[in-house]
Every structure is written in C-alpha cells, then in structure tokens.
Specification:
The chain has 18 helices and 8 strands. It is an alpha+beta fold and 446 residues long. The protein folds into 2 domains: 154 residues, 60s Ribosomal Protein L30, Chain: A (2-Layer Sandwich), CATH 3.30.1330; 250 residues, Orthogonal Bundle (2-methylcitrate dehydratase PrpD), CATH 1.10.4100. The protein has a 6-stranded mixed sheet with strand order 3-2-4-5-6-7. Strands 1-8 form a two-stranded antiparallel ribbon. A hairpin with a 5-residue loop joins strand 5 and strand 6. The radius of gyration is 21 Å and the shape is globular. The N and C termini lie far apart (66 Å).
C-alpha cells in the first residue's frame, strides 16, 4: 500500500516529466504552435477535430521565438520531411499539420504537405524573428493571417503546452499572462522544495501507473537506440562506436548505444522518443545508461525501474532550478547527473553516494555548452553517458570532490544552486552562439 502522507502526486509528476515526441522538441514545438494558430483562426480548440483544409487560406505566418528555441531549431533535421531542416520549414510544415497530435504531429507528414510548405516559404509567407524580451527560455508566439481571419497561439515554459489561443484578437483558450516569469506546476514546485534524500525516497514506493509509464519509456528509448545501430545515422557516433575494436569496456559500449539513439532522432529518422523534462536526448541519456547497467548485472525489473525513475526525477529536479533550456548543455548537467544518480541507485547506493555522484559530474562536465540541437549532439550524449557511469563507480568507491573545487559546494543541493546561478549568467554566451549561427546564414551561397 502506498504512503498517504506524500507531498507530491507521482502519477501527475511523471506524466509531466516523461512525454513522447517524434523529432527534436524545439522544431516540433514551433510546428505545434503554428498549427494551433492556423486552426484557432477557424475556431479550433484543444480536444476538437481540426480542419486541415483551412491551411490553404494562410496568407502570412509570423513566428516569434526565444533565443534558445531558435538555437535548437536552427540546424535540426525534421522527421518524415524528405531531408528538410530548420525553424522556417518547421513552422511552414506546422501549417499543414494537425495540432491535436501534439508533439507527434510530424507523423502525419506526406509529400503533398511538404510541397505546400515549400511553396509557402518560396512565396515569403513565413517570417521568423527572435524576441529579446521573452518571458521564458521556452517561448513561441505565432500569428497566422488567413483570408478574413486571424489566429494566434503561444507556448511558454513547456514545449507541449499551449498557454493560450486567440481567434480574431480574442482569447478563446487559456490566459494571457505575459508578465509571469514562471509557470511551475504544484508537483514540480513540490519536487524542487525537496532535498535529494527526499527525492530518492520517492522511488521506493512507485504507483502502478508510474511503473507502467517507466516500462513504456524503457521500451521506447531502447528501440530508438537500436534503430540508430542499424546503419550510420547523423555522424554515426553510436554505430561506429560499437564497431570500434578498442571499445571493450561496458561504459564505452553503453555510451555508444546511448549515442545511437541521439544519432537516429537528430538525423530526422522517424523514431518516437520518450522525452525527459522537455528533451528527447535527455530522455535517452536518462534511461539507457541505467537500463544497460541493470541488464549487464541482472537486476530485478523493479530495481531497474526505480533506478530509471530516480534518473528522471533528478533530471527534472535540476531542470526546476536551471530551466528547460540554457547556454549549458542539458544532456550533461541535467540528464547526465540524473543518469549518474540512477546508476548509483542501481548499484545499491543511497543518499551519500548520490551526493558524491552529483558533485563529480558537476566538477567534470559543467563547461559543456549548448550550441543548438544538431546531429553533433550525439557526441555530447556519448561523453555524458560514459561519464555518468564513471561518476557512479567513483561515488560508490567513496571518491569525493572537495568543496573548495570550483563550483562544487559542501552539499549536492548547494552545488545544483551554483549550476543554476552559472547558467543564468551565461546569456552572453547564448547571444554569441546566435551571432555565429546568423553569420552562417549570411555567408551561405545562394
């Protein structure tokens, strides 16, 4: 029987952390917002059946995004889109997609919709701009002008949740709260208020619904990684890593398997991923190192699922402090730390060992920047996965990073606060990354 004095609804929390998506979450979110804006112009609301024929009436699509959304949509391939990539195409394709499909809306792409999106771009009907005063790192606002009608949508804070919809200037769904800097659910707020020891305690008594979701997460993300091993995808980080005769250690093989999932999804291969805290790559790294360790050591299913649960809980815990997107690589400093904690738990460790693992990871991979979503992310996934296992091994052997080392603090919680503070001061890095990306557009041959 489950404890009744819990401060948090685990079913709701895990359903917020773990969500399926087809394709990189930032361009998918842009397409979702675009499709919702177009349909809102004709009276569509979430839960209703949409009318895709209205897309033919689109005269102009204006898309405003935060720097982080632009950065992570700049060079990423779109699944089922015949090799197309980038934020402009994502928005254009969204016009012809069904918003009721949410983060899986690219599953409905076909050649007719792709040709229509190409024509929309050729006719200069898609405008993209970066807003410097975005109220959140995840921010997308779309205005769709149709013949005699106007639709608009906003996504703020979370990729898959519409903040509001407007039809002809009137709000028809949600609320317009532009001044709100935070939009945190009660479950995430409760998680953020916990100590790491309390977070660990949560996995000892998981509801059946959460266990079922975790099983689905394992099946889905393992399948994605295996797909990435069938042939070289992206730059072939995972595929070539497993073929390396020198890659004899468990950690190296596990890192290659994990990277293969990133190879697949970042190269546009149409494989569904269970995301973690808004990121597919975080979903992969939060799952595969733990599952790989459990399989190699014959762990019982419940222990494996509890370990995976801790990995994703810690990933969300860090996200609550650092944010969904930042100049720091979430694969490294959020899901990587989460995976290290999950592997520690699978190894039989407790709060003391988890704290050591957090500090070791923070002392190792904190400097890894996020320079946008792209096929090269698999390299970072590989490094973070391998380091997560090594950190867990070191933590179990009582290796300790002294708290006079850089950003490492006396406790794991204080170390996480330092990571969050560091992330907030790196806006200049984000802007420089955007500047470099813009120069690529300016110097690209016609």
């Amino acid at each position: 029987m489950h404890r009744t004095n819990r401060r948090i609804d685990l079913d709701q929390l895990f359903n917020q952390i773990l969500k399926p998506a087809l394709g990189c979450t930032e361009p998918v979110a842009v397409a979702f917002a675009a499709s919702a804006a177009v349909q809102a112009a004709c009276g569509w609301l979430p839960g209703k059946i949409c009318n895709l024929k209205v897309a033919e009436d689109v005269r102009l699509l204006r898309v405003r995004v935060s720097r982080n959304i632009f950065k992570n949509s700049f060079a990423i391939l779109i699944p089922n889109a015949e090799g197309h990539k980038g934020i402009v195409m994502a928005a254009a394709l969204g016009v012809y997609c069904d918003p009721s499909q949410g983060m899986n809306l690219f599953a409905g792409l076909n050649s007719d919709r792709i040709r229509a999106a190409e024509k929309l771009i050729q006719n200069r009907k898609v405008e993209i701009s970066i807003t410097e005063d975005a109220p959140a790192e995840v921010y997308i606002e779309v205005e769709a002008q149709l013949e005699g009608r106007l639709g608009a949508s906003m996504i703020r804070h979370e990729h898959s949740i519409l903040s509001w919809l407007k039809c002809n200037g009137e709000i028809v769904f949600g609320e317009d709260k532009l001044n709100s800097k935070t939009q945190v659910s009660p479950e995430v707020s409760a998680l953020k208020a916990m100590s790491l020891k309390e977070v660990i305690d949560l996995v000892e008594d998981l509801p059946e619904g959460v266990l079922a979701l975790l099983r689905n997460t394992v099946v889905m993300n393992v399948a994605a990684c295996r797909a990435g091993l069938t042939r070289p995808m992206g730059i072939g980080t995972g595929y070539f890593g497993t073929a390396d005769e020198d890659a004899s250690s468990f950690a190296q093989h596990m890192a290659s398997l994990t990277a293969a999932g990133s190879d697949a999804r970042m190269s546009g291969y149409p494989v569904e991923i269970m995301t973690s805290a808004g990121s597919g790559n975080q979903g992969i790294i939060g799952t595969i190192p733990v599952v790989s360790y459990a399989g190699a050591h014959g762990l019982a299913e419940l222990k494996m699922l509890q370990s995976v649960a801790l990995s994703h809980l810690v990933t969300m815990y860090l996200t609550a402090y650092i944010g969904y997107l930042s100049a720091l690589c979430g694969v490294a400093i959020k899901a990587g730390i989460g995976a290290a904690c999950g592997v520690v738990y699978a190894m039989g460790g407790g709060a003391e060992e988890v704290e050591r693992a957090v500090k070791i990871m923070a002392a190792t991979l904190t400097g890894m920047i996020c320079d946008g979503a792209k096929i090269g992310c698999a390299l970072k996934v590989s490094n973070a996965a391998e380091m997560a296992v090594r950190s867990a091994q070191l933590a179990m052997r009582k290796a300790e990073v002294p708290d006079d080392n850089g950003i490492v603090a006396p406790t794991a919680e204080q170390t996480i606060l330092n990571l969050a503070e560091l992330g907030r001061t790196m806006e200049v890095v984000d802007q420089k990354i955007i500047d470099i990306m813009m120069k690529k557009i300016e110097t690209k041959p016609a």
